[in-house]
Amino acid sequence: MDWHARYTQQAGWTAQIRRYLYEKAGLARTARVLEPGCGTGAVLTDCPAGTLHGLDWDWQHLQVAQHAVPRARWCAPTQTPCHMPTPASMPA
Fold first, then answer.
1. What is the model's pLDDT at position 71?
2. pLDDT at position 20, please?
3. How far apart are CA 71 and CA 78, in angstroms?
4. 82: helix, strand or coil
5. 37 and 56 in contact (C-beta within 8 Å)?
6. Radius of gyration for the alpha carbons in the chain, expressed in angstroms and rounded
C-alpha cells in the first residue's frame, strides 16, 4: 500500500480547516512545530511554521517524510539525538 498517497488524500480532506486554524493560531509566526505521529509528513507539507519536527515510530514512513518535507527534521523515539535514520541504522 502507498501510505503517503493515502495520507496525502486524507490530508486533503482537512486542508481548508487546517489553513484556517494555522492562521488563527499564528503558525506563520511560530518558530517550531512538533507533530507526534507524523506518518509520512503529509499534514506538514503546508504548515507555515518556521521549523518543523516530525515524530513517528515507523522508520519507513519517516524515510518518505524526509523526501515529502525536506525542510523538516524527523525522528523516531528510539533515536538519540533525534536525526533522520540511514538504512544502516534502521532495525531489520
1. 87
2. 96
3. 22
4. coil
5. yes
6. 13
Beta-carbon contacts of residue 64 (< 8 Å; ≥ 6 apart):
3, 4, 40, 41
Closest to 38 measured CA to CA, from 12, 9, 71, 64: 64
Three-class SS of 14-70: CHHHHHHHHHHHCHHHCCEEEEECCCCCCHHHHCCCCEEEEECCCHHHHHHHHHHCC
pTM over 0.90: no
Cell of 57: 515510530
Distance separating alpha carbons of residues 31 and 29, to the nearest angstrom: 6
HSE of 14, CA atoms in CB hemisphere, 13 A: 12
| Lookup result for grid cell 525542510 | 71
pLDDT digits (tens, 9 = 90+) for 19-37: 999 999 998 888 888 899 9
Place of cell 489553513: 19
Other Cβ atoms less than 10 A from the Cβ of 86: the count is 8
